[in-house]
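Worked example

This section walks through a single chain of length 77. The input is the sequence exactly as stored; nothing has been trimmed or padded.
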Amino acid sequence: MGPDTDRDHCPTVWADAEAQEILLQGWKPAPETLANCEASSPANGPVPASEAIVRIPARMIPMIREACDAVERAQLR
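Given that input, the structure is written out below as tokens.
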């Protein structure tokens, strides 16, 4: 769970070492932010319905690094 957030409205990072994946929970971006993301990389096209863009606060960078390290360690086993 992200620092400085309550249990009901918090960005979170999970490391699934077995699946070698990182899962992120964040806030949905405003429609104009989503449009800006898609426009900034036109070669990538629109975000498919099976995918999502989420906003993650910078204060969570240490948690994301920790999750990345956990997944990398699992790959070395």
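What to look for: Residues 1 and 42 are 33 Å apart (CA to CA).
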